[in-house]
Amino acid sequence: MRLRQLASDASARRESGETVLDGLKLLGEALASGAEVTGAVFAEGAALPEWLECPVYAAPAELLAYASPVKNSPGPVFSVRMPRHEAPEAPDCAVVLENMQDPGNVGTLIRTANALGIDLVVLCGECADRSSPRAVRASMGAAFRQSVVACEAAELPALMERLGLTLYGAALSEGAQDLRTAQLRRAAVAIGNEGHGLSRELLDNCAGAVIIPMRPGSESLNAAAAGAVIMWEMARARL
Q1: Domain tRNA/rRNA methyltransferase SpoU type, which positions (predicted)?
Q2: CATH class of 2-81
Q3: CB-CB contact of 133 with 21 (8 Å)
Q4: Looking at the chain, which terminus has fewer C-beta neighbours within 10 angstroms, N or C?
């Protein structure tokens, strides 16, 4: 079944530009953003909406469960074409996620960026697929609205130069600057892999490092929490 393939196969999502999601809330978010819903399957016995401008089907519960990317889905399960984003011409701020492999973290940070008005999210290197069902679900639909682009690590310096952004790395490096005093206008901050942080290659291309001040003896924040703090400070710098 095509829906099942989209749920489990990243290459199928890349080739088609589509993903598969479930639930009325995400369906509403997709439609409100102007994304193209290409097909939907509702539970057998449910009223089939006439307002959906795509093929609509009814299926028994076991078939709906097979097609769904989540367990115990009440439906509908639907396929949707993910918007293709371009980097804005003159962003004021951006966040770079490098080699972030958890789709839940990627989706959560896209949601946070959208909520706080961050102009651009850059997925650098081996990041989780932003169109994976888990990432889109974690974004609560923000993945349809937030500007997100992808690049390889070697391409990042040229991208930052083209956008006119100064790149900082969130890292416990010698000489790292307190996030609260860093110049975060016309800047991008890079957040690294959940277990290993930022790569040496990326750090070498940064103008400097920034750290989140914390109580002595505290464990480091996870990627999603650290990203939220960083983006809050970036948003505050624009006030």
Answers
A1: 94-232
A2: alpha beta
A3: yes
A4: C
